[in-house]
User: What shape does this take?
Amino acid sequence: MNTILIFFLLFLNLILFYFLNKKKIKNFFYKSQIQLVELDQVDEIFLNNKIDHNLYGPKKEVIVKNFCIQGNNNIVGMTSDYEAWIISSLSKISNNIFEFGTCSGKTTYLMALNSPDKGKITTLTLSPKDLKGIKKNKFDNKVSYRNLINESIYDKFLFSKTKYESKIEVIFQNSLNLNEKLFLKKFDLIFIDGGHTYSIVKNDSEKSFKMLKSNGIILWHDFVPGKESAKNVVRYINTISKEKKIFHINNTSLCYYRKR
Ligand SMILES: C[S@@+](CC[C@H](N)C(=O)[O-])C[C@H]1O[C@@H](n2cnc3c(N)ncnc32)[C@H](O)[C@@H]1O
Assistant: This one.
């Protein structure tokens, strides 16, 4: 009897341990199919500049205009400051930029602040009024779908009424209905950060491959294996990486593809 009780308690403890450490256990066994690269492999602007035999610093191309959003601001769906700096730096060398998913417009604003004076940013987002038409597909992750709804709350943005607004075109449209033929091979930089459900990530990515200029870069946000809301992003990128050379940038949730 005692032995049965001991085994039962042991079993209960194992189950409890699994549920408390589910994420860590999954990450331990997770083997990424995407090659991890250092930032300086993405573009030579990220190579260090030698200042002295024991001191290296940033090149002038990666000195950017920046701002931070304070924690008490309650803005949802943002990039980290490091990711924002990477996107700002790449914006400096991009004349035509497209963003899937505007949200508060934080990244859009950084793109406008840092792109060349004649640069143009097109950003596509759902209007809070259009959410009724958004349906969950059977393969779509529940948490991603819920986030999509919670992040579609803005129709004014951080750049609204600033002088940078004239560089930005906001398109209020479901990306599933975007006619990519209007933008073939047009963009130097495309940032995919719209809906994180499988159907939307797949749609946005397939359209981006067609909209990208030769030598242009696509960046995906939220490649975080083990994170529930990023599950579909990870699954899609892993799948497409069998056909396209996609890399994961170290210490970020960004993946990138360059059209050679
Ligand atoms: C994670 S937020 C974007 C964050 C933003 N890129 C930033 O860096 O601050 C996701 C955005 O994607 C938009 N979105 C989600 N699904 C979409 C769809 N099917 N078509 C267009 N926009 C979509 C949401 O309305 C929301 O604005």
